[in-house]
Amino acid sequence: xxxxxxxxxxxIVMDGNGRWATRRYLPRVAGHKKGMDALRACLRHCDERxxxxxxxxxxxxxxxxxxxxEVSGLMELLALALAREVPQLKNEGVRVKFVGDRAALSExxxxxxxxAEADTAGNTRLVFNVCFNYGGRWDIAQAAAALAARGxxxxxxxxxxxxxxxxxPAPDLIIRTGGERRLSNFLLWQAxxxxxxxTDKLWPEFDGAALDEALADYAARERRFxxxxxxxxxxxxxxx
Length: 240
Ligand code: FPP
Hints:
There is one protein chain. By secondary structure, the chain is an alpha/beta fold. The chain has a single domain (3-220), classed as 3-Layer(aba) Sandwich (Undecaprenyl pyrophosphate synthetase). 45% of the residues lie in helices and 15% in strands. The protein contains 9 helices and 6 strands; from the N terminus they run E-H-H-E-H-E-H-E-H-H-E-E-H-H-H. It has a 6-stranded parallel sheet with strand order 3-4-2-1-5-6, sandwiched between helices. Helix 2 (28-49) runs parallel beside helix 3 (68-91), helix 3 packs parallel to helix 4 (107-120) and helix 5 (136-149) crosses helix 6. The longest helix has 24 residues, at 68-91. The structure holds farnesyl diphosphate. Farnesyl diphosphate binds next to helix 1, helix 2 and helix 3.
């Protein structure tokens, strides 16, 4: 794979934790714990491959509707990630950002998120966006509301700049594991020209080899952004 074919920004819907656990007669939260292990490995693998931004969907605006023990299990995983993973990520040069509506989170968790972001703000090796209590519609609505409150005109450019992910370019590649072929309210605005990759693998089984398969699939795509193939071909190749 040539270096130029590596996506700058990879985003992932980490689906299938529940099924992974249920098939093993384990509680769903055990699947999320295993999913955390897969996420840790995936981040390191992305870094090795030269990906500069990784964005993951950890908790959607709709996930509050899950059984209370699963919601609290995911909150505990977030707290654990803040305590155990962030210091390690800091040492590895990763800048951590949390993307989503923080209003519904406890004051302690909100302080933890702010601390993690401040603590890693100077890192430049890889940006790691954790979408938590996030929804694409929420993001577009909050961006429009922020512009309206400031009396600014709503244009594609101004809205783009007011989104919660304005600190990174749009994802080049969006991966969804777990067999479903939909975005489920993830990065609705930013996905306009992203390449989509779906795999039946459940998230806890998504290992380095699976990521490489996704990257190879991406490398074989032709991204035209509304242009024709001929417009994209370099002049020498076009003449041949
Ligand atoms: C979707 O699988 C997965 C989630 C809702 C949670 C993803 C969370 C992690 C991978 C752990 C990392 C967490 C943090 C806080 C950083 P599902 O439960 O919908 O699976 P199913 O479709 O098989 O039921």
